[in-house]
């Protein structure tokens, strides 16, 4: 198999020889506009991880059926469930949907920001925007759930999934409501958003909002802002702007390294966007009926899908990714400069549904161990006069 080298220009990084509490982040990639889908792999298989009643389409099918496209009026990326095909009742029924995985993988020292105008919702609908450790059996590489809820819930949930030994510290400074502290349980270490309009129809009616995730040696931190409350550092930024977190305030979820060794439990993480239907969380009868829905979950999948799935779509203005490069002193304690030489971003080959590694276990159930993608990631220190600068080189398998 041929090897391709990808260099990330300008990324000569200072390792964390000293601990700081706020980092300046340099932009790495923006997923937006007409190029949004060019840096993602389509799953192209059934949902064999959370066992929803969907078939995740390949890129050509997604394009031809209008399940992934760029809205010409806004420039936003749209990812949706099929709402036009008549599905007859049968022993097994699947509706077409989408799952895409980023070609790049983001290590500790990364920052992820997503601006969303609409999150899929409705009875049987289970959307997720999450991160998954690369090329390793789930959950050995860790999983980070950034946006995830089901059916007609009105608030988002955040979670980490790991092997035993990682916890949400009881003294974490966060605004969210802690549901579970053990990250190795089926639902993971779970935090519920307390700000209004973080999911469902309320989110859409409020004009959406922004979610951010910081991966740091000091912890993993997640924020949400409604459209009217987005901090100036984000609302006034463009794709070339560096990012400073000093006006972000207290995160919704704060997973401190005092209770979870981030470097130990989290490998470089690929981004994943998907929408499944029913499955091992949204489709569980007791959960389905307690989250604003009646009858049986599968009844939604059968039929034309209209109007049931008219709101089952993502509308994404952009996803921006960053790496910590320089630091400033702050007193919040929410972040620090990276202390590892594994600051890397990688490009994966097309996802293989039969390979090892899986995630998206949901907030109520664990999932089987299958793959999201195959990725090779290496990072080598380059010598400098002080030995403090790191060179970054990415090797990518092209299958």
Describe what this molecule looks like in 3D.
- With 399 residues, the protein is mainly β.
- The protein has one domain (3-397): Sandwich (Jelly Rolls).
- It is 8% helix and 32% strand.
- The chain has 7 helices and 22 strands.
- The chain has helices at residues 59-64, 200-205, 232-235, 262-265, 279-282, 285-289, 298-301, and strands at 3-7, 22-32, 40-42, 45-46, 54-56, 68-70, 77-80, 95-97, 99-106, 110-118, 125-133, 143-148, 157-161, 177-178, 189-192, 209-216, 219-226, 243-244, 253-256, 269-277, 313-328, 393-397.
- The strands form 4 sheets. Strands 2, 6, 7, 10, 16, 17, 18, 19 and 21 form a 9-stranded antiparallel β-sheet that branches. An 8-stranded antiparallel β-sheet has the order 3-9-20-11-12-13-15-14. Strands 4-5-8 form a 3-stranded mixed β-sheet, with no helix packed on it.
- The longest helix has 6 residues, at 59-64.
- The chain is globular.
- It starts with a strand and ends with a strand.
Q: Could you name the CATH class?
A: Mainly Beta
What is the gyration radius calculated from CA atoms? Answer: 20 Å
Query: Shape, please?
Result: globular
As for the number of domains, it is: 1
CATH architecture: Sandwich
- N-to-C order of helices and strands: EEEEEHEEEEEEEEEEHEEHEEHEHHHEE
Query: Which structural category fits the helices and strands?
Result: mainly beta
Q: Summarize the amount of helix as a percent range.
A: under 10%
Unreliable stretches, pLDDT < 50, 5 or more residues?
A: 1-21, 328-358, 363-399
Helical segment tally?
7
Relative strand content: 25-35%
Mean pLDDT comes to 82
- CATH-derived topology: Jelly Rolls
Distance between the termini: 6 Å
Strand elements, count: 22
Largest sheet: 9 strands, antiparallel
């Amino acid at each position: 198999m041929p090897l391709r080298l990808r260099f990330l220009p300008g990324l000569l990084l200072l390792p964390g020889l000293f601990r700081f509490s706020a980092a300046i982040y340099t932009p790495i990639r923006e997923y937006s506009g007409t190029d949004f889908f060019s840096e993602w792999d389509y799953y192209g298989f059934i949902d064999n991880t959370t066992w929803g009643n969907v078939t995740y389409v390949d890129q050509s099918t997604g394009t031809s059926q209008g399940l992934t496209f760029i809205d010409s009026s806004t420039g936003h990326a749209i990812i949706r469930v099929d709402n036009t095909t008549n599905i007859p009742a049968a022993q097994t029924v699947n509706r077409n949907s989408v799952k895409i995985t980023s070609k790049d993988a983001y290590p500790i020292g990364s920052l992820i920001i997503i601006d969303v105008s609409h999150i899929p919702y409705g009875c049987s609908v289970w959307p997720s925007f999450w991160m998954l450790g690369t090329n390793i059996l789930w959950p050995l590489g860790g999983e980070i759930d950034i946006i995830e809820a089901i059916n007609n819930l009105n608030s988002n949930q955040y979670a980490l999934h790991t092997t035993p030994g990682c916890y949400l510290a009881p003294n974490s400074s966060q605004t969210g409501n802690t549901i579970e502290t053990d990250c190795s349980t089926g639902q993971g270490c779970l935090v519920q958003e307390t700000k209004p309009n973080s999911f469902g129809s309320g989110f859409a009616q409020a004009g959406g909002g922004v979610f951010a995730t910081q991966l740091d040696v000091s912890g993993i931190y997640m924020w949400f802002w409604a459209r009217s409350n987005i901090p100036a550092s984000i609302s006034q930024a463009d794709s070339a702007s560096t990012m400073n977190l000093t006006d972000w305030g207290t995160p919704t979820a704060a997973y401190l390294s005092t209770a979870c060794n981030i470097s130990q439990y989290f490998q470089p993480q690929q981004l994943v966007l998907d929408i499944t239907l029913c499955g091992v969380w949204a489709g569980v009868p007791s959960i389905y009926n307690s989250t604003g829905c009646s009858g049986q979950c599968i009844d939604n999948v059968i039929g034309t899908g209209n109007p049931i799935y008219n709101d089952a779509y993502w509308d994404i203005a952009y996803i921006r990714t960053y790496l910590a490069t320089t630091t400033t002193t702050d007193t919040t304690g929410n972040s620090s400069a990276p202390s590892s030489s594994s600051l890397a971003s990688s490009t994966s080959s097309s996802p293989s549904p039969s390979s090892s590694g899986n995630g998206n276990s949901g907030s109520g159930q664990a999932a089987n161990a299958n793959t999201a993608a195959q990725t090779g990631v290496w990072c080598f220190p380059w010598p400098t006069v002080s030995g403090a600068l790191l060179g970054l080189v990415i090797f990518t398998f092209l299958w």
